Amino acid sequence: MNWKFILIYTDSFKAKKVPRLSVPNAISAAKLSKEVGVARSCLSRWVSVARTVGPMSKDSPVNHVVQTDSRARTAKEKLRIVMAAATIGPDELGVFLRREGVHEADLQHWREAVAQGATLALENGTPRSVARGADTRRIKDLERELRRKDRALAETAALLVLQKKVHEI
Length: 169
Known about the structure:
The chain is mostly helical. The chain is 69% helix and 0% strand. The chain has a domain at 1-67. α1 (11-22) packs across α3 and α4 (75-86) packs across α6 (104-124). The chain is flat, with a radius of gyration of 27 Å.
């Protein structure tokens, strides 16, 4: 029987291991993986998460491992943050961004994406989700046709090989 285990590591455990990989002349991920018994992929993910901007407050520890990654946010969350930031003055924007755990560059990128999406929707007159659905259907149809033609080609090649063998006999 093949057993799979899911291990959940505490934030304090992660916070102790990440600096060992992040400092100059740090230990390699492979060595640390063997030493502590954690997969290299987990260690690498912890380091990348720790490098992202997260909640900042005076009472948070210095080596706090951030749990939220701005790339993991849904489109609805991003739109909500962009809309809320639009109603906030520049003085309160920093506080708002820290509370949400968002970097200002991410917010600017999301604003541009919202503007680009709105422009495309107005130009095309069609919601993007409908267009995406039509594209998905077309791709599936083309893939199905490609598989059918591949099978026909393989069958034809097999028949040619058999014909050659019959002529040889």
